[in-house]
Amino acid sequence: MAGILEARGLTYRIGKKDILNGLDLTIKKGEIHVIMGVNGTGKTTLASVVMGLGGYQPASGQLLFDGEDITTLSITERAKLGIMLAWQIPASFEGVAVREYLSLGGSNADVPSLLKMVGLSPQQYAGRFVDDSLSGGERKRIELAAVMAMKPKLVVLDEPDSGIDLASTGTITRLIRKFKENGASVLLITHNENMASVGDIVSLLCGGKIVKQGKARQMARFFEKYCKGCEHVGKVEEEKLNG
Amino acid sequence: MASPASELDAMVEAYSAAGGDKGSLASPGHASLIVSGNKLLGKSEADGVSIDAKGTPDGVDITISVEEGKDVGQVHLCIGMLQKKGRQLIRSHYIVGKNASVDFVSHCIFPNAERMQHLMDLDIRLSSGAKMSYRDEHIHSERGLVVKPRLRASIGENAQLIDEFKLVKGAVGELDLDYEVTQEKGSSCELLTKLYGKKNDRMRVKESLFLNGENASGTAKSRIVLKGSAKAEVLGEIEGNAPYTRGHVDCHEVVEGENAVAEAVPRIRVNNPLARITHEAAIGRINKKELETLMSRGLAEDEAVDFIVNGLLR
User: Looking at CA atoms only, how far is residue A161 from chain B in angstroms?
Assistant: First the structure.
């Protein structure tokens, strides 16, 4: 499989601190690629750099999408190529109905099916506003439905399970698989080993770099053993990686 | 000068163009009133609603009463002037009887205004248990006019008032909105003002709630978007004067114009240790995350701004 997204030597810096430190990463077409890492390792920064959000221009390195250099493209240009981001904490939109929000990509969006897909009743939710009257979990599901409606080629999911009750994580994993079935590649950011099990491959982010890659079960074990409770955030301990 | 029949047709057409439902002005069972300048062009009463309206030298005096215990549904008001210049003073009294319920849908239309003054003096009295909503949408010409809505309302025990003033179509011109509501025990009130200021529009909004009865609650909310050199000044004021009163001032002003200026002053006061009043205000550019979320769905920045603004002012 060819790479749909390639990061080559990507460095993103705040002041003197490298949040991403020469990161290399390849997401293959049609794959669910999980990025795991503890808090503060640069997972959300990576999502922001891939989407090209304001203030997230890399200091050096290159980002290729389907072979095209997108490092300097705007958010809108990247979205038009098919890159979509579902935020960890989605924004609210006062006065905007869910129905309208899910139709951003065109009036032919099948709103009832999209809502059912994320476990929400179309009758109860299509007319509601995408504002603070929704709970965090409801808002998150609607965000995922909105990204699904856009028929993305690459979807970046930043901790899609955060704020969602345990019983609903099954809905989220089914949805992630649905993205893949629809032909999209998925960059899934999480620190939840159970969520990571949906991935075809898992990369471990530490100190702004991908330090280890492997299958979900193997990486979940490693993460559980060495990363959880690790007090050396930002410092890669080579002996553990090789051990 | 247009004849009354053609003036009525012109007003109804302007009402329809402004988004009003033409049929509602002549629908049996619904009360309605059509006023142009100081002329009463149409009036329809319904079971439980009586309308008394008479012309004055520069406007119309209106009294609308809703009978005790009656749920009369919607009452449609179409008020305006088709001329380019002039002055209109509307004095309105709305009296809603005990446990009665009514929804006013009002359109104030000035499609040709160039040098126009529209003064509204509203007096609302809700008896105990009454429910009233008053949604007032203004549609102006591209030149705008001088508009001075003044509301004084008293809400009886366990009564409820929802008031929305919306001016987002055409130019504002100069607006001086002054609303003051006093509330009795268990009553509730929601005031909401939505404005879209452009070019040199000037807006002054004062929303005041006095929560005088135990358990009374109220919100004074404003949503304002400013472009060009428009200026807006908002005073949201709530006093909690009795036990367990709850109030909230909520002001959101989006500044899009290079020379636009927004100002918000909350004034909250508690005169009883068991009262609780809160306030929040957000003034300035559109939230970056909202903008980037929409851009990440393929909208250009200006399309994203329009999408957010339309939602806010809807």
Answer: 19
**What letter represents residue B100's amino acid?**
A
CA dihedral (B71, B60, B120, B127) positive or negative: negative
Range of the domain at A237: 3-93+153-242
Shortest Cα–Cα distance, B301 to chain A (Å): 8
Question: Domain of A82: which CATH number?
Answer: 3.40.50.300
The alpha-carbon gap from B59 to the nearest alpha carbon of chain A, in Å, equals 35
Domain count, chain A: 1
* pLDDT tens digits along A133-169: 999 889 999 999 999 999 999 999 999 988 777 777 8
Provide, for chain A, the percentages of residues in helix, strand and coil under a 3-state DSSP scheme, each rounded to the nearest 5. 35, 25, 40
The first and second tokens of residue B25, run together, are 């002005």
Q: What are phi and psi of B92, to 5 degrees?
A: -120, 140
Angle at A229 between CA A228 and CA A230, to 5 degrees: 90
Which one of A76, A85, A91 has the shortest CB-CB distance to B287? A91
State the sign of the Cα–Cα–Cα–Cα dihedral A19, A23, A27, A31.
Answer: negative
Asked if the structure places residue A74 within a domain, the reply is: yes
How many domains in chain B?
1
To test the contact with chain B by mutation, choose from A81, A87, A93 the residue with the greatest count of B C-beta atoms within 10 A, namely A93
**Residue A205's pLDDT is what?**
93
- Tell the residue number behind the tokens 């493209």, with chain if given: A73
- Residue A227 has what pLDDT? 83
- What pTM, to 2 d.p., does this model score? 0.88
Of B290, B298, B314, the CB nearest to A105: B298
Dist CA A124 CA A128 (whole Å): 7
Residue A210 maps to a domain: yes
From B252, B287, B297, residue closest to A105, measured CB to CB: B297
Distance in angstroms (rounded) separating the CA atoms of residues B264 and B283: 8
Domain that holds residue B40: 4-313
What CA–CA distances, in Å, run from B67 to B48, B62, B141, B161?
5, 16, 37, 17
Domain assignment of residue A143, yes or no: no
